[in-house]
Amino acid sequence: MLKGRSAPGIGFVVFLLSIIMVVTVGAVMAIDTPPQRTTAYDNGQLRSYPIEPEERWSLDLSDMRTYDAGATPLVAGTFEDTWLISYPSGLGNTYLAIDRRGGERLWPRPIDAGLGSCALNARGEVGCAVRLGDHPDGFYTAELDTGELDSVSDLDSTQAVTGYGPDYLRVNSSGYQVSRNTPDGTEVWARTFAGAATVEVDGDVAIVRASDGTQHLIDPATGDDRFGCSCDLVIYPTGIAAQFTERDAQRVEFLLPDGTSTSNNDKQQLVPGPSTLAVTTGAGSEQIYQTQGTYAAYDPQQATRLWQVSEAELSKVGARPCGDTVSFARKDGTRAVLDLATADKLGELPRSDPMSPSTNIDILGCVGQGGNTIVFGENSQLTAYNIATGSVAWQRSVVGGQPAVVDGYLVLEEGTTLSLLAPS
Question: pTM for the whole thing?
Protein backbone atom coordinates (compact mmCIF):
# COMPACT_ATOMS: atom_id res chain seq x y z
CA MET A 1 0.00 0.00 0.00
CA LEU A 2 1.08 3.54 -0.55
CA LYS A 3 2.04 5.77 2.34
CA GLY A 4 0.23 9.02 2.93
CA ARG A 5 1.41 11.83 0.69
CA SER A 6 3.79 14.44 2.00
CA ALA A 7 2.84 18.08 2.18
CA PRO A 8 3.02 19.80 -1.22
CA GLY A 9 6.18 21.76 -1.86
CA ILE A 10 6.74 25.09 -3.58
CA GLY A 11 6.86 23.37 -6.98
CA PHE A 12 3.30 22.19 -6.56
CA VAL A 13 2.12 25.60 -5.43
CA VAL A 14 3.66 27.21 -8.52
CA PHE A 15 2.08 24.53 -10.67
CA LEU A 16 -1.37 25.08 -9.17
CA LEU A 17 -1.13 28.83 -9.48
CA SER A 18 -0.12 28.48 -13.10
CA ILE A 19 -3.20 26.34 -13.75
CA ILE A 20 -5.39 29.03 -12.29
CA MET A 21 -3.67 31.68 -14.41
CA VAL A 22 -3.99 29.89 -17.73
CA VAL A 23 -7.55 28.63 -17.40
CA THR A 24 -9.90 30.38 -19.80
CA VAL A 25 -13.65 29.88 -19.96
CA GLY A 26 -15.50 29.42 -23.26
CA ALA A 27 -18.94 30.69 -24.16
CA VAL A 28 -21.86 28.26 -23.94
CA MET A 29 -24.02 27.55 -26.99
CA ALA A 30 -27.36 25.96 -26.21
CA ILE A 31 -28.38 22.75 -27.96
CA ASP A 32 -32.09 22.41 -28.65
CA THR A 33 -32.48 18.64 -28.49
CA PRO A 34 -29.65 16.84 -26.72
CA PRO A 35 -29.45 13.10 -27.37
CA GLN A 36 -31.26 10.86 -24.93
CA ARG A 37 -28.70 8.95 -22.90
CA THR A 38 -29.12 5.24 -22.38
CA THR A 39 -28.02 5.62 -18.76
CA ALA A 40 -27.11 8.39 -16.33
CA TYR A 41 -23.75 6.66 -15.88
CA ASP A 42 -21.92 6.80 -19.18
CA ASN A 43 -18.41 7.81 -20.18
CA GLY A 44 -16.58 6.50 -17.13
CA GLN A 45 -19.06 7.69 -14.50
CA LEU A 46 -19.32 5.37 -11.50
CA ARG A 47 -21.72 5.04 -8.62
CA SER A 48 -20.29 5.47 -5.11
CA TYR A 49 -17.31 3.21 -4.32
CA PRO A 50 -15.40 5.01 -1.53
CA ILE A 51 -14.51 1.79 0.36
CA GLU A 52 -13.60 -1.69 -0.77
CA PRO A 53 -16.79 -3.06 -2.35
CA GLU A 54 -18.34 -6.37 -1.41
CA GLU A 55 -19.53 -8.78 -4.04
CA ARG A 56 -23.31 -8.42 -4.35
CA TRP A 57 -23.71 -11.48 -6.52
CA SER A 58 -21.73 -13.78 -8.76
CA LEU A 59 -23.27 -15.53 -11.76
CA ASP A 60 -21.71 -18.81 -12.84
CA LEU A 61 -23.28 -20.27 -15.97
CA SER A 62 -21.17 -23.42 -16.10
CA ASP A 63 -24.28 -25.45 -15.16
CA MET A 64 -26.21 -24.26 -18.23
CA ARG A 65 -26.90 -26.94 -20.83
CA THR A 66 -25.42 -24.91 -23.68
CA TYR A 67 -22.51 -23.34 -21.83
CA ASP A 68 -19.05 -23.79 -23.40
CA ALA A 69 -16.27 -24.54 -20.93
CA GLY A 70 -13.98 -21.57 -20.35
CA ALA A 71 -16.37 -18.99 -21.84
CA THR A 72 -16.92 -15.75 -19.91
CA PRO A 73 -20.44 -14.28 -19.65
CA LEU A 74 -20.79 -10.63 -20.67
CA VAL A 75 -23.48 -7.97 -20.27
CA ALA A 76 -24.99 -7.44 -23.74
CA GLY A 77 -27.56 -4.81 -22.74
CA THR A 78 -29.62 -3.35 -19.91
CA PHE A 79 -33.18 -2.16 -19.37
CA GLU A 80 -33.90 -0.70 -15.96
CA ASP A 81 -32.99 -3.45 -13.45
CA THR A 82 -32.84 -6.24 -16.05
CA TRP A 83 -29.54 -7.17 -17.67
CA LEU A 84 -29.21 -9.24 -20.83
CA ILE A 85 -26.27 -11.62 -20.50
CA SER A 86 -24.53 -13.31 -23.42
CA TYR A 87 -22.06 -16.18 -23.50
CA PRO A 88 -20.50 -18.30 -26.26
CA SER A 89 -22.06 -21.70 -26.80
CA GLY A 90 -22.29 -24.23 -29.58
CA LEU A 91 -21.94 -22.47 -32.92
CA GLY A 92 -22.40 -18.94 -31.58
CA ASN A 93 -24.00 -17.11 -28.66
CA THR A 94 -26.69 -17.74 -26.08
CA TYR A 95 -28.60 -15.08 -24.12
CA LEU A 96 -30.18 -14.96 -20.68
CA ALA A 97 -31.88 -12.18 -18.68
CA ILE A 98 -31.04 -11.67 -15.01
CA ASP A 99 -32.21 -9.31 -12.27
CA ARG A 100 -29.42 -6.83 -11.66
CA ARG A 101 -30.38 -6.41 -8.01
CA GLY A 102 -29.69 -9.99 -6.95
CA GLY A 103 -28.31 -11.75 -10.01
CA GLU A 104 -31.29 -14.13 -10.27
CA ARG A 105 -31.99 -15.74 -13.63
CA LEU A 106 -35.33 -14.53 -15.01
CA TRP A 107 -35.84 -17.01 -17.83
CA PRO A 108 -36.51 -20.74 -17.41
CA ARG A 109 -34.28 -21.39 -20.42
CA PRO A 110 -31.86 -19.17 -22.36
CA ILE A 111 -32.20 -18.15 -26.00
CA ASP A 112 -29.71 -19.89 -28.27
CA ALA A 113 -29.22 -17.50 -31.21
CA GLY A 114 -26.64 -19.68 -32.95
CA LEU A 115 -24.68 -17.57 -35.42
CA GLY A 116 -27.06 -14.65 -34.89
CA SER A 117 -27.44 -12.31 -31.91
CA CYS A 118 -29.96 -10.69 -29.57
CA ALA A 119 -30.36 -7.11 -28.34
CA LEU A 120 -32.64 -4.93 -26.24
CA ASN A 121 -34.50 -1.96 -27.67
CA ALA A 122 -35.54 1.13 -25.68
CA ARG A 123 -38.90 -0.46 -24.80
CA GLY A 124 -37.33 -3.46 -23.10
CA GLU A 125 -38.14 -5.85 -25.95
CA VAL A 126 -35.64 -8.52 -26.93
CA GLY A 127 -34.99 -8.86 -30.66
CA CYS A 128 -33.13 -11.98 -31.81
CA ALA A 129 -31.72 -12.96 -35.16
CA VAL A 130 -31.63 -16.76 -34.83
CA ARG A 131 -29.34 -18.58 -37.28
CA LEU A 132 -28.71 -22.28 -36.69
CA GLY A 133 -29.88 -21.89 -33.10
CA ASP A 134 -32.56 -23.76 -31.16
CA HIS A 135 -35.42 -22.34 -33.29
CA PRO A 136 -35.96 -22.15 -37.05
CA ASP A 137 -34.00 -19.33 -38.65
CA GLY A 138 -35.81 -16.00 -38.37
CA PHE A 139 -35.97 -12.70 -36.57
CA TYR A 140 -37.88 -13.12 -33.31
CA THR A 141 -39.09 -10.84 -30.57
CA ALA A 142 -39.46 -11.89 -26.96
CA GLU A 143 -40.79 -10.42 -23.74
CA LEU A 144 -38.02 -9.45 -21.37
CA ASP A 145 -39.67 -11.07 -18.35
CA THR A 146 -40.16 -14.52 -19.89
CA GLY A 147 -37.64 -14.98 -22.70
CA GLU A 148 -40.24 -16.84 -24.76
CA LEU A 149 -39.79 -16.18 -28.47
CA ASP A 150 -43.07 -15.13 -30.06
CA SER A 151 -43.55 -13.12 -33.26
CA VAL A 152 -41.21 -14.02 -36.08
CA SER A 153 -40.29 -12.31 -39.35
CA ASP A 154 -37.83 -12.93 -42.16
CA LEU A 155 -34.23 -13.19 -41.04
CA ASP A 156 -32.93 -11.32 -44.11
CA SER A 157 -29.56 -13.02 -43.44
CA THR A 158 -29.11 -10.91 -40.27
CA GLN A 159 -26.09 -11.81 -38.13
CA ALA A 160 -25.81 -8.87 -35.68
CA VAL A 161 -28.53 -6.87 -33.92
CA THR A 162 -28.37 -3.60 -31.98
CA GLY A 163 -31.31 -1.87 -30.29
CA TYR A 164 -32.08 1.60 -31.65
CA GLY A 165 -34.95 3.41 -29.97
CA PRO A 166 -38.07 1.23 -30.42
CA ASP A 167 -36.42 -0.53 -33.39
CA TYR A 168 -33.27 -2.47 -34.26
CA LEU A 169 -30.25 -1.93 -36.46
CA ARG A 170 -29.44 -5.16 -38.24
CA VAL A 171 -26.17 -6.09 -39.98
CA ASN A 172 -26.48 -8.81 -42.62
CA SER A 173 -24.35 -11.94 -42.87
CA SER A 174 -21.91 -10.37 -45.34
CA GLY A 175 -21.36 -7.52 -42.89
CA TYR A 176 -21.77 -4.84 -45.57
CA GLN A 177 -25.44 -3.93 -45.22
CA VAL A 178 -27.01 -2.15 -42.24
CA SER A 179 -30.79 -1.77 -42.01
CA ARG A 180 -33.24 -0.29 -39.54
CA ASN A 181 -36.19 -2.55 -38.85
CA THR A 182 -39.20 -2.35 -36.57
CA PRO A 183 -39.79 -5.28 -34.16
CA ASP A 184 -42.19 -6.91 -36.65
CA GLY A 185 -39.46 -6.89 -39.31
CA THR A 186 -40.67 -3.91 -41.35
CA GLU A 187 -37.69 -2.26 -43.00
CA VAL A 188 -37.39 1.50 -42.39
CA TRP A 189 -34.23 1.83 -44.49
CA ALA A 190 -31.24 -0.21 -45.64
CA ARG A 191 -27.79 0.91 -46.65
CA THR A 192 -24.73 -0.88 -48.03
CA PHE A 193 -21.24 0.22 -46.98
CA ALA A 194 -17.90 -0.24 -48.75
CA GLY A 195 -16.53 -2.35 -45.90
CA ALA A 196 -17.82 -4.76 -43.28
CA ALA A 197 -19.73 -2.72 -40.71
CA THR A 198 -20.06 -2.63 -36.94
CA VAL A 199 -22.59 -0.45 -35.14
CA GLU A 200 -22.39 1.66 -31.98
CA VAL A 201 -25.55 3.20 -30.53
CA ASP A 202 -25.82 5.68 -27.66
CA GLY A 203 -29.30 7.10 -27.20
CA ASP A 204 -30.29 8.79 -30.47
CA VAL A 205 -26.74 8.67 -31.83
CA ALA A 206 -25.77 5.82 -34.15
CA ILE A 207 -22.31 5.37 -35.65
CA VAL A 208 -21.36 2.81 -38.28
CA ARG A 209 -17.69 1.86 -38.52
CA ALA A 210 -16.67 0.19 -41.79
CA SER A 211 -13.61 -1.97 -42.39
CA ASP A 212 -12.48 0.34 -45.20
CA GLY A 213 -11.50 2.90 -42.54
CA THR A 214 -14.55 5.14 -42.87
CA GLN A 215 -16.94 6.00 -40.04
CA HIS A 216 -20.45 7.36 -40.37
CA LEU A 217 -22.75 9.32 -38.08
CA ILE A 218 -26.08 8.31 -39.57
CA ASP A 219 -29.49 9.96 -39.78
CA PRO A 220 -31.90 7.74 -37.82
CA ALA A 221 -34.75 8.46 -40.24
CA THR A 222 -32.97 7.67 -43.50
CA GLY A 223 -29.65 5.95 -42.79
CA ASP A 224 -27.83 8.67 -44.75
CA ASP A 225 -24.69 10.29 -43.42
CA ARG A 226 -25.05 13.23 -41.12
CA PHE A 227 -21.26 13.16 -41.07
CA GLY A 228 -18.84 10.74 -42.68
CA CYS A 229 -15.06 10.60 -42.70
CA SER A 230 -11.89 8.54 -42.69
CA CYS A 231 -11.44 9.24 -39.01
CA ASP A 232 -12.34 8.00 -35.55
CA LEU A 233 -15.71 9.13 -34.14
CA VAL A 234 -15.98 9.27 -30.33
CA ILE A 235 -19.33 9.84 -28.59
CA TYR A 236 -19.66 12.20 -25.63
CA PRO A 237 -22.86 13.12 -23.73
CA THR A 238 -23.45 16.31 -25.74
CA GLY A 239 -21.91 15.49 -29.10
CA ILE A 240 -19.21 13.72 -31.07
CA ALA A 241 -15.49 14.20 -31.64
CA ALA A 242 -14.03 13.35 -35.06
CA GLN A 243 -10.31 12.62 -34.81
CA PHE A 244 -8.27 12.79 -38.00
CA THR A 245 -4.83 11.16 -37.80
CA GLU A 246 -3.43 11.54 -41.31
CA ARG A 247 0.18 12.66 -41.14
CA ASP A 248 0.64 16.44 -41.16
CA ALA A 249 -3.14 16.88 -41.08
CA GLN A 250 -3.97 15.82 -37.53
CA ARG A 251 -6.98 17.60 -36.12
CA VAL A 252 -10.06 17.16 -33.94
CA GLU A 253 -13.45 18.37 -35.13
CA PHE A 254 -16.41 18.57 -32.75
CA LEU A 255 -19.97 17.92 -33.87
CA LEU A 256 -23.51 18.16 -32.58
CA PRO A 257 -25.58 14.94 -32.76
CA ASP A 258 -27.17 16.24 -35.99
CA GLY A 259 -23.73 16.41 -37.63
CA THR A 260 -23.31 20.19 -37.39
CA SER A 261 -19.67 21.14 -36.86
CA THR A 262 -19.04 23.38 -33.84
CA SER A 263 -15.24 23.72 -33.97
CA ASN A 264 -12.21 22.52 -35.89
CA ASN A 265 -8.93 22.24 -33.98
CA ASP A 266 -5.79 21.77 -36.07
CA LYS A 267 -2.72 19.91 -34.78
CA GLN A 268 -4.70 18.42 -31.91
CA GLN A 269 -5.41 14.83 -30.85
CA LEU A 270 -7.77 13.32 -28.29
CA VAL A 271 -6.36 12.03 -25.04
CA PRO A 272 -7.93 8.55 -24.71
CA GLY A 273 -10.05 7.58 -21.73
CA PRO A 274 -13.74 7.30 -20.79
CA SER A 275 -14.83 10.81 -19.85
CA THR A 276 -17.81 13.13 -20.04
CA LEU A 277 -15.88 15.87 -21.87
CA ALA A 278 -13.10 15.69 -24.45
CA VAL A 279 -9.46 16.39 -23.59
CA THR A 280 -6.98 17.23 -26.35
CA THR A 281 -3.25 17.77 -26.59
CA GLY A 282 -0.87 18.66 -29.39
CA ALA A 283 -0.40 16.27 -32.31
CA GLY A 284 2.50 15.77 -34.72
CA SER A 285 5.00 18.61 -34.78
CA GLU A 286 2.81 20.55 -32.37
CA GLN A 287 3.70 18.05 -29.66
CA ILE A 288 7.19 17.06 -30.76
CA TYR A 289 8.59 20.54 -30.32
CA GLN A 290 6.82 21.25 -27.04
CA THR A 291 8.97 21.23 -23.93
CA GLN A 292 5.98 20.95 -21.60
CA GLY A 293 2.48 19.54 -21.58
CA THR A 294 -0.39 21.57 -23.01
CA TYR A 295 -3.95 20.30 -22.69
CA ALA A 296 -7.44 21.65 -23.40
CA ALA A 297 -10.96 20.53 -22.47
CA TYR A 298 -13.92 20.75 -24.86
CA ASP A 299 -17.66 20.33 -24.69
CA PRO A 300 -18.63 19.25 -28.25
CA GLN A 301 -21.71 21.50 -28.20
CA GLN A 302 -19.63 24.65 -27.68
CA ALA A 303 -17.71 26.62 -30.27
CA THR A 304 -14.79 27.40 -27.95
CA ARG A 305 -12.76 25.31 -25.55
CA LEU A 306 -13.72 25.25 -21.90
CA TRP A 307 -10.20 25.78 -20.62
CA GLN A 308 -6.54 25.16 -21.36
CA VAL A 309 -3.56 24.40 -19.13
CA SER A 310 0.16 24.59 -19.91
CA GLU A 311 3.01 24.63 -17.42
CA ALA A 312 6.76 23.97 -17.42
CA GLU A 313 6.47 21.06 -14.95
CA LEU A 314 3.56 19.43 -16.77
CA SER A 315 4.39 16.19 -18.59
CA LYS A 316 3.51 15.82 -22.28
CA VAL A 317 2.23 12.28 -21.66
CA GLY A 318 0.29 10.31 -19.10
CA ALA A 319 -2.91 12.37 -18.81
CA ARG A 320 -5.90 10.29 -17.68
CA PRO A 321 -9.41 11.61 -18.48
CA CYS A 322 -11.76 9.64 -16.25
CA GLY A 323 -15.47 10.27 -15.73
CA ASP A 324 -15.93 13.90 -14.68
CA THR A 325 -12.22 14.37 -13.92
CA VAL A 326 -8.79 14.41 -15.53
CA SER A 327 -5.44 13.76 -13.86
CA PHE A 328 -2.30 15.35 -15.30
CA ALA A 329 1.15 13.91 -14.68
CA ARG A 330 3.96 16.22 -13.68
CA LYS A 331 7.54 15.60 -14.69
CA ASP A 332 8.33 14.50 -11.12
CA GLY A 333 5.71 11.75 -11.38
CA THR A 334 3.05 13.28 -9.12
CA ARG A 335 -0.40 14.10 -10.45
CA ALA A 336 -2.98 16.86 -10.14
CA VAL A 337 -6.65 15.89 -10.44
CA LEU A 338 -8.93 18.54 -11.98
CA ASP A 339 -12.65 18.84 -12.52
CA LEU A 340 -13.22 18.42 -16.25
CA ALA A 341 -15.92 21.07 -16.54
CA THR A 342 -14.32 23.85 -14.47
CA ALA A 343 -10.58 22.99 -14.15
CA ASP A 344 -10.94 23.35 -10.38
CA LYS A 345 -8.30 21.35 -8.54
CA LEU A 346 -9.85 18.41 -6.68
CA GLY A 347 -6.71 16.84 -5.26
CA GLU A 348 -3.38 15.29 -6.09
CA LEU A 349 -2.05 11.76 -6.39
CA PRO A 350 1.42 10.65 -5.26
CA ARG A 351 4.23 9.66 -7.57
CA SER A 352 3.78 6.18 -9.00
CA ASP A 353 6.22 3.49 -7.94
CA PRO A 354 7.56 1.77 -11.09
CA MET A 355 8.14 -1.36 -9.00
CA SER A 356 4.47 -1.51 -7.94
CA PRO A 357 2.36 -2.15 -11.06
CA SER A 358 -0.87 -2.18 -9.04
CA THR A 359 -0.45 1.49 -8.09
CA ASN A 360 1.46 2.74 -11.13
CA ILE A 361 -1.07 5.01 -12.83
CA ASP A 362 1.38 5.50 -15.70
CA ILE A 363 0.53 1.98 -16.87
CA LEU A 364 -3.02 1.69 -15.51
CA GLY A 365 -6.07 2.88 -17.46
CA CYS A 366 -9.16 4.65 -16.15
CA VAL A 367 -11.97 2.30 -15.15
CA GLY A 368 -14.27 5.00 -13.80
CA GLN A 369 -14.83 7.83 -11.33
CA GLY A 370 -17.65 8.55 -8.93
CA GLY A 371 -17.66 11.39 -6.41
CA ASN A 372 -14.36 11.50 -4.56
CA THR A 373 -13.19 8.09 -5.78
CA ILE A 374 -11.28 7.35 -8.97
CA VAL A 375 -10.63 3.75 -10.03
CA PHE A 376 -7.76 2.64 -12.25
CA GLY A 377 -7.12 -0.88 -13.42
CA GLU A 378 -6.08 -3.47 -15.94
CA ASN A 379 -6.68 -7.16 -16.49
CA SER A 380 -5.56 -8.36 -13.05
CA GLN A 381 -6.06 -5.45 -10.68
CA LEU A 382 -8.37 -2.65 -9.55
CA THR A 383 -6.90 0.24 -7.55
CA ALA A 384 -9.11 3.03 -6.21
CA TYR A 385 -7.81 6.38 -4.96
CA ASN A 386 -9.41 8.91 -2.68
CA ILE A 387 -9.00 12.08 -4.73
CA ALA A 388 -9.04 14.46 -1.76
CA THR A 389 -6.37 12.64 0.28
CA GLY A 390 -4.38 11.18 -2.60
CA SER A 391 -4.21 7.82 -0.82
CA VAL A 392 -5.19 4.37 -2.00
CA ALA A 393 -8.81 3.80 -0.92
CA TRP A 394 -8.93 0.09 -1.76
CA GLN A 395 -7.55 -2.58 -4.07
CA ARG A 396 -8.98 -5.75 -5.53
CA SER A 397 -7.49 -8.40 -7.77
CA VAL A 398 -9.24 -9.60 -10.93
CA VAL A 399 -8.66 -13.29 -11.60
CA GLY A 400 -8.54 -14.44 -15.19
CA GLY A 401 -10.62 -11.61 -16.62
CA GLN A 402 -11.13 -7.88 -16.66
CA PRO A 403 -13.18 -5.14 -15.00
CA ALA A 404 -16.11 -3.46 -16.74
CA VAL A 405 -18.56 -0.66 -15.92
CA VAL A 406 -22.27 -1.34 -16.56
CA ASP A 407 -24.75 1.43 -15.77
CA GLY A 408 -22.26 2.83 -13.25
CA TYR A 409 -21.70 -0.50 -11.48
CA LEU A 410 -18.32 -2.21 -11.27
CA VAL A 411 -18.57 -5.63 -12.89
CA LEU A 412 -15.87 -8.31 -12.98
CA GLU A 413 -15.75 -10.67 -15.95
CA GLU A 414 -13.64 -13.49 -14.55
CA GLY A 415 -13.32 -16.93 -16.11
CA THR A 416 -16.74 -18.57 -16.06
CA THR A 417 -18.31 -15.98 -13.74
CA LEU A 418 -19.79 -12.51 -13.89
CA SER A 419 -19.83 -10.60 -10.59
CA LEU A 420 -21.29 -7.26 -9.53
CA LEU A 421 -19.46 -5.23 -6.86
CA ALA A 422 -21.91 -3.40 -4.62
CA PRO A 423 -21.58 0.39 -4.34
CA SER A 424 -21.51 1.91 -0.86
Answer: 0.89
